[in-house]
Amino acid sequence: MESNAKHSRRKVLKIGITALSVAPLAGLSERAFATQNTAVRTALKFQDHPNADKRCSVCVNFVPNMDKPNNDDTVNGCKLYPGDTEICPHCYCLGFVQNPAATAAGAAWSPWAAAAKK
Q: How many domains does the chain have?
């Protein structure tokens, strides 16, 4: 009888410790890991709106998130912003360089389709 009580107590402790260690992870999402490179953002005068037709989605430095095609969220990247995962397709900075493929295709061009072909 005493060995059953010890076994039961151990099992309860193991389950409780596991639950306590996993509980903080339940609230995490992909947004929790998003980061901004503020030093580079300041240097390149990053802004969260386009400058006329100049926007991140038609820049050669834009790195689209292939897990979420055609998204308008801030979950993309840029070659000029190492470690920054909050680049939106409609943003702009002084590092903008027009993508020749986007110029040729016009409004029908998509950075997600172009990246998928590579």
A: 1
